[in-house]
Specification:
Alpha-Beta Plaits, 6-stranded mixed β-sheet, globular, Alkaline Phosphatase, subunit A, 392 residues, 33% helix, 14 strands
């Protein structure tokens, strides 16, 4: 019988500060704790699986007999960005963080980049994406200069109005930047940030965002694909892994479209990994400090969770987790250094198993590879034997 693992990453849905949060100025961050206690979203399906039973959960919702194994995970890699989090989930633990540029990128690099793309640049500061296009969008329209900016994460972002810079050109410019950003400048991601509108009052980012990631080391995706199985990425998964180890993909934009794409992909006939990123909690609500919007997005996912469960075969596995935090009730607009929640459900597995606190996100990759019987030497410890023992 063909096996699937459905791995859903609720982007930025952290569950409380990590022990080293002080190094990132993130003491007190707790994305789930704050969103749930402030807005009280209805999350009956995740709570039934054990979300509220996770050690240290700072919100109500614990149940007597959770249907899944549950726990939380520490990030071993330095950093708190999307690339680092997803790579560690997939078994690649970084020893050095991707570089960040709180003062902007070196002028020498920008000079060479401008020559390569044939346009000037403006900005070159850490900024909120919506705020910087409000501030610089009209200058961009008048001059044609690209808006470049970064954040607390390791990113080089290029914002451009689609009327001024066609998407094909913007993506080409990002590919040029990706090739140029090497060595000490090798950021985790170059991100295309297209927008539309004619003035600061109606500028709006579109769903045509694209991420151009650094090339990852060997991950579970490579090993699963190398075994002849499918690795099916939904949303920005293909971008996060620079298409490496991804055999099929649907670059859907936004949570509703990604959930539809994932359910369609789950119903198809193949053996392998369905790897899903649901980005709205991070991009649309976390960074914009929209606590109620964040709560609504969690509710919307929870309402569709039974559809994913119903489609599971007897040998399928469902894993729900996150990649970092982005607490909309915390200070600032950046990611937060937090634990991530972990829910593991399979119709052939016992529920009500407390996995407590894991030392690395990479335990997910080890568990997935173990499920498929793929031998490997990448990071992480499989949780299957512990779950099968039913130890709570």
């Amino acid at each position: 019988m063909k096996k699937k693992v459905v791995l859903i990453v609720l982007d930025s849905v952290g569950i409380g500060e990590l022990p080293d949060a002080a190094l990132y100025d993130d003491v007190g961050a707790d994305t789930l704790g704050h969103v749930i206690t402030i807005c009280r979203p209805s999350l009956p399906n995740m709570m039934a699986m054990g979300l509220g039973n996770i050690d240290g959960a700072a919100f109500p919702g614990a149940v007597e007999h959770p249907t899944a194994a549950y726990g939380k995970m520490r990030e071993k890699s330095p950093g708190k960005d999307t690339t680092t989090g997803h790579w560690e989930i997939a078994g690649a633990v970084l020893t050095q963080p991707f570089p960040t540029f709180p003062e902007g990128f070196p002028r020498s690099f920008l000079d060479e980049f401008e020559k390569a793309v044939g346009r000037g640049t403006i900005g070159n500061i850490p900024a909120s994406g919506t705020e910087i296009i409000r501030q610089l969008g009209e200058e961009h329209l008048a001059t044609g200069n690209l808006i470049v900016y970064t954040s607390a994460d390791s990113v080089f972002q290029i914002a451009a109005n689609e009327r001024i810079v066609p998407l094909t050109e913007l993506y080409r410019d990002c590919e040029i930047a990706r090739e140029m950003l090497k060595g000490p400048l090798e950021v985790g991601r170059v991100i295309a940030r297209p927008f539309i509108g004619e003035n600061a009052g109606n500028f709006r980012r579109t769903g045509a965002r694209r991420d151009f990631s650094a090339l990852p080391p060997t991950t579970m995706c490579d090993l699963i694909a190398g075994s002849g199985r499918t690795v099916y990425g939904i949303g920005k998964i293909e971008d996060i892994f620079a298409h490496k180890g991804i055999t099929r993909s649907n670059h859907a934009a936004g949570n509703p479209a990604c959930m539809e794409a994932a359910l369609t992909a789950q119903a198809e006939d193949y053996e392998g990994l369905l790897f899903v990123n649901l980005v709205d909690t991070d991009m649309v609500y976390g960074h914009r400090r929209d606590v109620q919007g964040y709560a609504n997005a969690l509710e919307a996912f929870d309402a569709r969770l039974p559809e994913f469960v119903d489609q599971l075969g007897p040998e399928d596995l469902l894993i729900i987790t996150a990649d970092h935090g982005c607490d909309p009730a915390f200070k600032g607009t950046d990611h937060t250094r937090e634990h991530i929640p972990l829910l593991i459900y399979g119709k052939s597995l016992p529920g009500n198993v407390n996995l407590h606190v894991r030392d690395t996100f990479a335990d997910i990759s080890a568990t997935v590879l173990d499920w498929f019987g793929i031998s490997n030497s990448i990071h992480g410890t499989s949780l299957l034997s512990e779950i099968r023992k039913g130890r709570s």
